[in-house]
From TrEMBL:
Gene Ontology cellular component annotations, sorted alphabetically: cytosol
Family (UniProt): Belongs to the class-III pyridoxal-phosphate-dependent aminotransferase family.
Signal peptide: none
GO terms assigned for molecular function: pyridoxal phosphate binding; transaminase activity
Name of the molecule in the record: Aspartate aminotransferase family protein
Keywords: Amino-acid biosynthesis, Aminotransferase, Arginine biosynthesis, Pyridoxal phosphate, Transferase
Family annotation (SUPFAM superfamilies): PLP-dependent transferases
Co-factor(s): pyridoxal 5'-phosphate
NCBIfam families associated with the record: PRK07483.1 (NF005685)
PROSITE patterns: AA_TRANSFER_CLASS_3
Protein origin, superkingdom: Bacteria
Any Gene Ontology biological process: L-arginine biosynthetic process
C-alpha cells in the first residue's frame, strides 16, 4: 500500500522511472507519448536534457540555498535579466517563488500593496473571469472561476467579482464580427468596475490564452488592448496569468506579446523551470517598483524559497536552451503543423465542436451535437474517459470537465514539448484520433 496521499488515493498509479524528450517510461516498462509536457504543460523543453542537469549540479556545488533577505545569486540576477529582456515593455523587475499559485498570491499582494503605498487604501478588490483557474491557494482560488475546484472551500474564500471570459465559440452573437465581440466582452470589465466603484478596485486578472478551464482559448483580436484602456481609465492594475500559456508555448516568449498586450504585472511558472525545478515568477512594472521604493521600501510578503539559487539556475539553463536551440520558433512551427493536423483530422468530426489555440497549445472542445453545440451529458464524463482511453494506450493528454457555469464544454488540451519532431506531432494526432473514436464508441454503446 502507498503511504503517499495522491490526488486519487484509492488508485494505484504507475511509477515513472525514466523520461527522455517526449517519451516517458514506467517501472513496468510501458512507454508513454507525452503530448502535454509532463502532464500539465510544464516540461516545455522535453525530459532529460543533460544541459539542465549540469547547470543544477554546478549550482549545487557552489551554493544550494541562501535566504533572499541576505543574498542574491548570479543565477537569480541573470535569469531576471533574461526574462525582462524578452518581456512586454514596461516590466522591469522579477519576484521569484516556487510555482504558479504562489506567483498569483504574490501578484495579488503586490497590487494591493501598491495602492496602500499610494495612499489609496480603499482599492482592494480583484476582478477576474468565470471559467478560469489561477491556482490552488486561497487567494488564487478566490479569484478563480473553476466551480468544482472552488466550491468546497467557499466559506474560506474572499469574494471576487467575475466577468465572462472572452470565448467566441460560445458567446459571439449571430452576425457579430469577432472584433465587435472582443470589444463587447472587454466592456464587461468596465461595467463591473463601475458597479463595484472604481475607487475600490485594485486589479483585473486574466489569462491571455485560457488554459485548463476552457481548453486553449485565445483572447479575440482587440480584447487585450481594450482591457488595457479600461484599466488605465479607472486606475486598475492589469495582471496577466501566463502560468500555462507563457514561456514560449504559443510561439511568442510571452503569450500577450502576440496581441500587443502590456500588463502591469505578469505571472509565469510551469515552463519557466521546464519541470527541472519548481519555480514561478512575477514580473512587475517600473511604476510599481518606484511606488515601493519611494514608499515603505520593501515588499510586505515573501516566501522562504524565493529566488532559490538551484531553481533559478535550472530556469536560467532552460531559457538558454530555448534561445540556443530556437525553441520558441520551433513551438510556432510545430504548433502550425499540430493545428493543421488537428484541422484535417477533426475539422469535420461530428463530436468536435471547436479547435482553437496558439502554437503548441491547442485545444479541442467536444460536443454531443455540432450544429446546436449541445454538450455531452456530464454524467457521461467524456473528458475522463478520453484521458483514460488515451493513457491506457500510452498517450498523455490533458482533458478537463466543462461542467462550469452550466456549460459542459468537455475539452482536451495538447501541449507537447517544443522539441517535438514532425513525426511526434503526426503521431500525437493519429493516436488522439484512436482515443477519441474509442471514447465516442463507449458513449454511444
Ligand atoms: N494559473 C494557471 C493559468 C494555471 O494553469 C495554474 C496551474 N494549472 C496555476 C495558475 C497554478 O499553478 P501551480 O499549480 O503551479 O500552483
Amino acid at each position: 500500500m502507498s503511504h503517499v496521499f495522491h490526488r486519487t488515493p484509492a488508485r494505484t498509479l504507475p511509477r515513472i522511472v525514466a523520461a527522455q524528450g517526449l517519451r516517458m517510461t514506467d517501472a513496468d516498462g510501458r512507454t508513454y507519448l507525452d503530448a502535454v509536457s509532463g502532464g500539465a504543460a510544464v516540461s516545455s523543453i522535453g525530459h532529460g536534457d543533460p544541459r539542465i542537469t549540469d547547470a543544477i549540479t554546478a549550482q549545487l556545488g557552489q551554493v544550494a540555498y541562501a535566504h533572499n533577505g541576505f543574498f542574491t545569486s548570479d543565477a537569480a540576477e541573470e535569469l531576471a535579466d533574461t526574462l525582462i529582456a524578452g518581456a512586454p515593455e514596461g516590466l522591469s523587475r522579477v519576484i521569484y517563488c516556487s510555482g504558479g499559485s504562489e506567483a498569483i498570491e504574490s501578484a495579488l499582494k503586490l497590487a494591493r500593496q501598491t495602492f496602500v503605498e499610494r495612499g489609496q487604501p480603499g482599492k482592494g478588490k480583484v476582478i477576474a473571469r468565470r471559467q478560469s483557474y489561477h491556482g490552488a491557494t486561497m487567494g488564487a482560488l478566490s479569484i478563480g472561476g473553476n466551480v468544482p475546484r472552488k466550491a468546497p472551500y467557499a466559506p474560506m474564500l474572499f469574494d471576487a467579482p467575475l466577468i465572462a471570459p472572452c470565448y467566441p465559440y460560445r458567446d459571439q452573437a449571430e452576425g457579430e464580427t469577432l472584433e465587435a465581440y472582443a470589444i463587447r466582452a472587454a466592456d464587461a470589465l468596465e461595467e463591473q468596475i463601475l458597479a463595484e466603484g472604481p475607487e475600490t478596485v485594485a486589479a483585473f486578472v486574466a489569462e491571455p490564452v485560457v488554459g485548463a478551464t476552457l481548453g486553449c482559448v485565445p483572447a479575440a483580436p482587440g480584447y487585450l488592448k481594450r482591457i488595457r484602456e479600461i484599466c488605465d481609465r479607472y486606475d486598475v492594475l492589469l495582471v496577466f496569468d501566463e502560468v500555462m500559456c507563457g514561456g514560449g508555448r504559443t510561439g511568442f516568449a510571452f503569450a500577450c506579446l502576440e496581441d500587443g498586450g502590456s500588463p502591469d504585472i505578469l505571472v509565469i511558472a510551469k515552463g519557466l523551470g521546464g519541470g527541472y525545478q519548481p519555480i514561478g515568477a512575477v514580473l512587475a512594472s517600473q511604476a510599481i517598483v518606484d511606488t515601493i521604493v519611494d514608499g515603505s521600501g520593501s515588499l510586505k510578503q515573501g516566501f522562504t524559497y524565493m529566488a532559490h539559487p538551484v531553481a533559478c539556475a535550472a530556469a536560467l539553463a532552460v531559457q538558454k536552451v530555448i534561445a540556443e536551440d530556437g525553441l520558441v520558433e520551433a513551438a510556432a512551427a510545430r504548433g502550425a503543423q499540430l493545428r493543421a493536423g488537428l484541422d484535417a483530422a477533426f475539422g469535420q468530426h461530428p463530436h468536435v465542436g471547436n479547435i482553437r489555440g496558439r502554437g503548441l497549445f491547442q485545444g479541442l472542445e467536444f460536443v454531443a451535437d455540432r450544429e446546436t453545440k449541445a454538450p455531452f451529458d456530464p454524467s457521461l464524463a467524456f473528458n475522463a474517459r478520453l484521458k483514460a482511453n488515451a493513457f491506457a494506450d500510452g498517450l498523455m493528454v490533458y482533458p478537463m470537465p466543462g461542467t462550469i457555469d452550466g456549460i459542459n464544454g468537455d475539452h482536451v488540451v495538447l501541449a507537447p514539448a517544443f522539441v517535438a519532431t514532425a513525426a511526434d506531432i503526426d503521431e500525437i494526432v493519429e493516436r488522439l484520433a484512436v482515443a477519441i473514436d474509442r471514447t465516442v464508441q463507449e458513449i454511444n454503446a
